[in-house]
């Protein structure tokens, strides 16, 4: 994602993550497997979005901020490892490399995912934020990733292999499965900025995060049927082979593109509302929308 380089130095975050995971007390075999997936070339969208929100609210970028950014990426990486398992999507490729279970074995991949999930909360408590902030962060991370968030979305996704969802049901599925961790990045940015912002402004940030997460998933559904495995870094047409409910399967390709455009407009409107209510720079939020391009154009 080129736009994230406008938000922060990607090399700096990757270096920080590399040093942190190397210095923490971890089983060496698990450390190796954790690093394999963490360093597989992810786009770092969630930490980048988090840092963009912090900057838009005039927050400080420091060691604790980077530790929290890392926690977001660690949590996301755990979800990918488990999502790729034979019992789930049974994928061979992730980010152009062998998936964790193909590289190390299924049992090892399950344990690596478990290790990353628990390491997420270790990272949050390694920060220097005050007790109230850490408590709020732990609660946000647990609920976003848990039984009323991402895990619920994963279950809805699996159950959907055997039934046809309505558009509203598919939207709720993706707001949980993909959107919750993206919304988490936005809400986390508000917490660590220690900003005494109005509920109205907070609601517009949440509206942006919610729609950005939805746009991200619609875009992914479109890419799944329009790009090759080499271009995607993962198996193309996987959703079709698993009979998954997607925006393309329900609306058709043109309909999915129109829905993507509508949701992007919702994101842009939320940014406009945020811009009218704060004194800091918000362009760092706008650049994320430039990545939703199909054949060189935003659709």
Automatic annotation (TrEMBL):
Top-level taxon of the source organism: Bacteria
EC number: 2.5.1.10
Top EC group: transferase
Cofactor: Mg(2+)
Membrane-spanning intervals of the chain: none
Alphabetized Gene3D superfamilies for the sequence: Farnesyl Diphosphate Synthase
InterPro entries: Isoprenoid_synthase_dom_sf (IPR008949), Polyprenyl_synt (IPR000092), Polyprenyl_synt_CS (IPR033749), Prenyl_diphosphate_synthase (IPR053378)
PROSITE patterns in alphabetical order: POLYPRENYL_SYNTHASE_1 (PS00723), POLYPRENYL_SYNTHASE_2 (PS00444)
Catalytic activity: isopentenyl diphosphate + (2E)-geranyl diphosphate = (2E,6E)-farnesyl diphosphate + diphosphate
GO terms under biological process: terpenoid biosynthetic process
Keyword annotations of the record: Isoprene biosynthesis, Magnesium, Metal-binding, Transferase
MF annotations from Gene Ontology: (2E,6E)-farnesyl diphosphate synthase activity; metal ion binding
The keyword Transferase is annotated on this UniProt entry: yes
NCBIfam families, alphabetized: FPPsyn (NF045485)
Family (UniProt): Belongs to the FPP/GGPP synthase family.
Protein name: Farnesyl diphosphate synthase
Organism: Pediococcus claussenii (strain ATCC BAA-344 / DSM 14800 / JCM 18046 / KCTC 3811 / LMG 21948 / P06)
